[in-house]
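Re: that chain you flagged

S.,

Sorry for the slow reply, it's been a week of failed gels. I finally had a moment to sit down with the sequence you sent. For the record, here it is as I used it:
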Amino acid sequence: MKVSVLMPVYNAADTLPECIDSILKQSLADFEIIAIDDFSDDRSIDILRSYHDERIRIFENTIKGIVPALNLGLECCRSDYVARMDADDIMSETRLEKQLAAMMEDDSITLCASQARKFPQAIIQPGYIEYMRWQNACLSEADIANEIYIESPFAHPSVMFRKHRILELGGYHNGDFPEDYELWLRLFHSGKKMIKLEEVLLQWRESESRLSRNDHRYSLTAFEKLRAEYLVKDARLADRKIVFWGAGRKTRQRAQYLIDLGIRPTAWIDINSGIIGNKYHGAKTCLPECLLKPERLHEVFKTEKKKPLVLNFVRNHGARLACREFLDTAGYIRGQDYLDMA
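Prediction finished late last night. Pasting the structure tokens below so you have them in one place:
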């Protein structure tokens, strides 16, 4: 058994046939589908059983919820190569073959994702369009390390991973946070290599019923808290003066999670002249130019001319890129001297 496709199923009768058909059309024939029914009360089970294909193995969840379903599925997978799939999405015919080839070629890869495309196009909101543009451009191990705190860098149903390495880290964790993003952060902090193939191998369905739209575990607050809990443990923050770029009210609210965990700013950076000089949590608000001159670094940050670490909280894509350009020009290295937090 080369690949196990792990797919929780909950009331997916309307989309399940298209999803299953896309898996059965794979160029790689040696796979199994581990379908975990999560207490569906529609025709999902009947649809699964209507396929007379021994590669489809059906299990019923014993504890309702996505995380118990995923962990039960991991126990049932017979291959060490596990491809995630959701019951409302569609995979490209070569997805399993290409991800498996990449992972077999490099044993150091723990997780291999692919680019994804949201559909149906008519209902995709501008924010999601920008998110997918960013996510699909976040490809290499370095990209992922440098941008892991912006958002979840992978579409969950686009990933393939080595089961034994996931189990060694405790499988999926349950809590008031997005279970997939928490796993990616845990893998990153464990030094596991994660990459993304530069090819769209998943059609990722958008709908009003998606968990990400309806469950508090996928709220902005849940993401912010989770990011903060992992960021405070990031080795790149050790023995560095910390600067928060962005001092508006919303940014200060977001930064509060870090401050509560002990990451206190030495300064705030903002372009709003009306708040320059204001102090928040004992740190002064400065214009970006204070990061340029060595003498100003010493005056403001007391670092003997050593650069501080800048956490860029600017959320608007264009403005965030402008901040990057400023820091790059000033000699700050992305991933080393500054991290994006949008």
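What I noticed first: DSSP finds 13 helices and 14 strands in the chain.

Talk soon,
D.
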